[in-house]
Write a structure and sequence with these properties.
This protein is of the alpha/beta class. The chain has 15 helices and 26 strands.
Length: 493
């Protein structure tokens, strides 16, 4: 099946149902599909076709699904650009993907001007210029050329250890991801979904495809502001919202939170990093459910979900695999499957597994084995089939032959009063090979000492796991999407 057919079918079945809504616009599925067809026909008229890459630089709005479904209908491949990146980083992605088209919001005109000398796209088009072109095009179906395992989307990973890699997702990958979500959690026809998590992440994008598949309205917000989010949840009668822990924490601190009786909200989905159990409990006290999702770009989105129905005692887990998905734990050294309770590398299989990294067969071969994607994440599965994500494999510290997981230390240190942020890495040691060092950002006015941090570790963890050094810093190095650059910390002395 061609992914573009999803919006064609939905327009036929639910023509008057609101599809996309945002500041100053609202389109029914009939109107949205007409615009998709006009966009597809414009791209065809411009010489864009099967296999060509179409890049888009936009905040969360209707242009991204319009371009995504339009490109899919003619066999082109969409590249969604991270608008937080600097011009040289975007230039690399445009060049690496070989994008022939760049569609951008006027907000990013300065960045685009800086790109013109370095990127080889043939067509440069602002969204207002695209609007003019749409009005001149036929709204007839452009004709489906490809589908199935043909690429539909390239999503570039954040690149914490080097250049970003382009995860190539097929039409089937994205459709099966939508099916998996709707068969695993309570996602209903006519639900209203708030899209504020960035669409350049698979966690932000996959729900949009799911909404078209299931017949739900997507309400877009171009940026995150806690007060605006709560206001939109109330005024737009939102049922579901995708979030990350930082968002939910900030929303909880917003003044004058709306009373529960004013909300049609069924739940928040939260992912991107481990969701603190305290955050789940805080919302539970307000009679609002938080569902935890463990997602991977190379798996087209959700790998597992935890829901309250699975048991509150399991809320520290990532839940169970999505429908049609499988997860197992592998020994990092031998690749053999490990029994329940043992920590190893998380591997997943199913129709959601990506096709590989764009123009990088070497990197692809390292992570795809017999249909399984080896995630680079460490985790375990308990006797009841619940998955627990422990840490990143590359971040694991081996000290005197013992495995130490920085995430364990970070949880203990991060709970101390006066700690704003913490990151733990392994540093070379003549006796033990590696020992843990903590980099801590203190809150203003905090009197926290190195001894305080070490004592907290000793009180909560085995002695061999405890940090041997604590370094207080003003900030932690991060990449353009906010991930901590532990490779930079390892090089600091």
């Amino acid at each position: 099946m061609n992914m573009g057919q999803l919006i064609s079918h939905r327009a036929l079945l639910s023509p008057n149902l609101e599809a996309f809504k945002g500041p100053g616009y609202s389109f029914s599925f009939h109107e949205a599909n007409r615009r998709v067809n006009q966009c597809a026909n414009f791209l065809k008229m411009s010489g864009i076709g099967q296999g060509d890459r179409v890049a888009i630089l936009c905040r969360n709005n209707h242009y991204i699904p319009t371009v995504l479904f339009a490109a899919a209908k003619i066999g082109a491949i969409t590249v969604i650009l991270n608008w937080r990146l600097a011009a040289p980083e975007i230039s690399y992605i445009l060049s690496h993907s070989g994008s022939a088209v760049l569609i951008y919001e006027e907000e990013f005109s300065t960045t685009v001007e800086a790109l013109r000398g370095s990127a080889a796209a043939r067509i440069w088009l602002s969204t207002s210029e695209l609007e003019d072109q749409l009005q001149e095009q036929s709204d007839g179906e452009p004709g489906t050329m490809v589908g199935g395992e043909w690429p539909a989307l390239i999503m570039y990973t954040s690149g914490t250890t080097g250049r970003p890699k382009g995860a190539t997702l097929s039409h089937s990958n994205l459709i099966w991801a939508a099916i998996g979500i709707t068969r695993t959690i309570d996602w209903r026809y006519r639900d209203r979904f708030l899209s504020v998590a960035p669409l350049f992440h698979i966690g932000g994008l996959a729900p949009i495809i799911t909404n078209v598949y299931q017949g739900c309205t997507t309400v877009f917000l171009p940026g995150f502001d806690p007060l605006q989010v709560w206001e939109t949840i109330v005024n737009e009668e939102i049922n579901i919202m995708m979030s990350v822990p930082t968002m939910l924490a900030l929303m909880l601190k917003a003044p004058n939170l709306p009373p529960r009786e004013k909300l049609n909200l069924r739940y928040f989905i939260c992912g991107g990093s481990a969701v603190p159990t305290g955050l789940i409990d805080a919302y539970r006290e307000r009679n609002i459910n938080v569902l935890q999702v463990y997602g991977i770009t190379e798996y087209s989105g959700a790998v597992t979900f935890w829901t309250p129905e699975m048991g509150m005692e399991k809320r520290s887990s990532a839940g169970k695999p999505v429908f049609h998905g499988k997860v197992k734990i592998l020994c990092p050294q031998t690749g053999a499957e490990l029994p329940a309770g043992e920590i190893g590398e998380i591997a997943c299989s199913g129709p959601q597994v990506f096709k590989g990294y764009w123009n990088d067969p070497g990197a692809t071969a390292k992570v795809l084995r017999d249909g399984w994607y080896c995630s680079g994440d460490l985790g375990k599965i308990d006797d009841e089939g619940f998955i627990y994500v422990i840490d990143r494999l590359k971040d694991m510290i081996i000290s005197g032959g013992e495995n130490i997981y920085p995430a364990e230390l970070e949880r203990v240190i991060g709970s101390l009063p006066g700690v704003l942020e913490v990151a733990v890495v392994g540093i070379p040691d003549e006796k033990w090979g590696e020992v843990p060092r903590a980099y801590v950002v203190k809150a203003p006015g905090s009197a926290l000492t190195e001894e305080d941090v070490k004592n907290a570790c000793l009180a909560n963890l085995a002695r061999y796991k405890c940090v041997k050094e604590v370094v207080f810093v003003d900030s932690l190095p991060r990449n353009a999407v906010g991930k901590i650059l532990k490779n930079v910390l390892r090089e600091m002395r």
